[in-house]
Write a structure and sequence with these properties.
By secondary structure, this protein is an alpha+beta fold. Helix 6 (about 250-270) links the parallel strand 11 and strand 12 (about 275-280). The chain has 20 helices and 14 strands. The longest helix is centred in the middle third of the chain and has 20 residues, at about 250-270. Helix content is about 40%, strand content about 20%. Helix 5 runs antiparallel to helix 6 and helix 14 (about 395-405) packs antiparallel against helix 15 (about 415-425). The chain has helices spanning about 10-15, 45-50, 55-60, 70-85, 190-210, 250-270, 315-320, 330-340, 345-350, 355-365, 370-375, 380-385, 390-395, 395-405, 415-425, 430-435, 445-460, 460-465, 475-485, 490-504, and strands spanning about 15-25, 85-90, 95-100, 110, 120-125, 130-145, 150, 165-170, 175-180, 220-230, 240-245, 275-280, 285-290, 300-305. The radius of gyration is 29 Å and the shape is globular.
Length: about 500
């Protein structure tokens, strides 16, 4: 397929106004699925499970099986609706969304249509320069996830060119909340940044509520980005495309930018935009056509006959409202002030998805500066190398314990990095790794003096230079001692001992 022609971004924004909309799916971390008692384990266990082992008859659509609503999923959905500023429906009901797809065993999805559990809200998002933008929320509704297809035999892993496909129903029936925005106007040249900030805000909200792992790379959080363009000054909306399941914050931003440039070029050339879904390709930074976008009528919605309406008590709603955590924007601003971070320092933490682990590390005894240093530095580097989330590698408590060993003089920064690698490798907590590997700093004067004498014997002119006032010459001896002791010498004490020797 030939690469699409793209218009320069700034030129596209001169000619057209971008109009956005987002549909974000949040997988809930309940113990069981939305309508069955099949297990819904946390990330690692879920992804390690053998295909088609986390299932029940309801998930497969077997005859005679009946759905039962997950109460925890209801409570989580209400909490999320409240956190989004939505009204909670006195009565909402499930519907059948009918369409055939191999990973949907029943040939319909249990969802909500015209009676969602939450409606009419808004969420405040913060751009990198501190600008606040309010995103209007149309609805948040409950539904179940579909299974997963793996296409075999092709060169790309996609259905095109595959010889056959395998179906894994483990994900079928996992509880979802779909958050649908209203049409978003006025973002102009900041449209890509707004897209990224909005998805970040949703992630922060659901993590704060504790109802989802909200990891895009694992599919706990999935964003469909709707983009259309209309000529400047025109009221009529353009035809939209829906880019599906973009799996990182950076990619959400890139996908919106790409669609603006692609659509602008087509329209400028006199072409028309096809209303369709589009697939995002991370490797090339492009989108490609999916399928024509269906309207609601095409799904033949009708009320789910096997489930009663959901009618939460007013007392339950108020109980969940009282338990809501601090809003993400307010929380971030409070933490930045408390920790004394600059905007740039805080962006490193926020954009890396490290806010919670940094906060927990500080709570465990580390200073804000050292907590940030470890998580945005060495730990993030190792996580990237292993293609894992930083929080998977080490606990905040162990990071704080590691820094405490540095503060006590037991470890140098270099030795601490070796200890970090040992903890991540599963060798124990920081103190256990220090003991097992013998990595503690040597501060015994006798051992240090012996190493100093050996270094001075190899460099007989250094002591004369130091005595002549050239104190910086001590660096050569210190370096030799550190090398001889494999970095475990107390460099400050080595320097003191050298200067004491020179004064004699």
């Amino acid at each position: 397929m030939a690469a699409a022609k793209l218009m320069d971004f700034d030129k596209a924004l001169e000619m057209f106004e971008p109009v956005l909309g987002f549909e974000v799916h949040v997988e809930l971390n309940t113990n069981t699925k939305m309508f069955s008692d099949a297990p819904n384990p946390a990330n690692e266990a879920f992804h390690a499970a053998e295909p088609n082992t986390l299932i029940a008859p309801v998930d497969l659509g077997l005859p005679g099986s009946l759905p039962v609503v997950n109460e925890t999923a209801i409570r989580s959905s209400i909490s999320l609706g409240l956190a989004l500023g939505c009204s909670i429906a006195e009565s909402s009901r499930f519907a059948r969304k009918n369409y055939f797809y191999p990973d949907l065993g029943k040939n319909y999805q249990i969802s909500q249509y015209d009676e969602p559990i939450a409606y009419e809200g808004s969420v405040e998002v913060e751009l990198e320069d501190g600008t606040l933008i309010t995103i209007p929320i149309e609805r948040a509704h409950m539904e179940e996830d579909a299974g997963k297809l793996t296409h075999m035999g092709g060169a790309t892993g996609r259905i095109q060119g595959a010889e056959y496909s395998l179906v894994d129903y483990n994900r079928a029936g996992v509880p979802l909340v779909e958050i649908v925005t209203k049409t978003i106007f006025g973002t102009d040249h900041r449209a890509p940044e707004v897209a990224k900030a909005y998805v970040q805000a949703i992630r922060d909200i659901v993590r704060g509520l504790g109802i989802s792992e909200a990891r895009l790379e694992r599919g706990n959080l999935r964003c469909d980005a709707n983009v259309s363009l209309r000529p400047r000054g025109q009221e009529k909306l353009g035809t939209r495309t829906e880019t599906k399941n973009v799996n990182s914050m950076r990619s959400v931003e890139r996908a919106v930018r790409y669609e603006i440039q692609r659509q602008a070029q087509i329209l400028a050339d006199g072409g028309t935009i096809t209303q369709e879904t589009r697939h995002w390709h991370e490797d090339t930074g492009t989108t490609s056509p999916g399928r024509p976008k269906s309207d609601a009528d095409d799904y033949r919605y009708f009320p789910e006959p096997d489930l009663l309406p959901v009618e939460p008590a007013a007392e339950l709603i108020e109980e969940l409202r009282a338990a809501l955590p601090e809003q993400p924007v307010a929380r971030r601003r409070r933490l930045m002030a408390e920790w004394g971070f600059t905007d740039l320092e805080f962006q490193d933490v926020r954009n890396g998805g490290l806010l919670e682990v940094v906060e927990a590390t500080i709570a465990a005894g580390a200073t804000p500066a050292t907590a940030r240093k470890w998580w945005t530095g060495e730990i993030s580097r190792l996580a990237n190398a292993q293609e894992k989330d930083a929080s998977e590698l080490i606990s905040p408590e162990n990071v704080a314990a590691l820094q405490q060993l540095v503060d006590a003089g037991t470890l140098t920064d270099k030795l601490a990095r070796q200890v970090l690698e040992g903890v991540i490798a599963g060798e124990g907590n920081p103190q256990e790794v220090v003991d097992a590997r013998g990595l503690a700093v040597v501060s015994d004067d006798g051992a240090l003096i012996a190493a100093i004498d050996e270094a001075l014997a190899a460099q007989p002119d250094v002591m004369a230079k130091i005595k002549d006032g050239k104190v910086q010459a001590a660096g050569a001896v210190i370096g030799a001692v550190m090398k001889a002791m494999k970095g475990q010498a107390d460099a400050a004490r080595v320097r003191e001992l050298i200067l004491e020797r020179a004064a004699q």
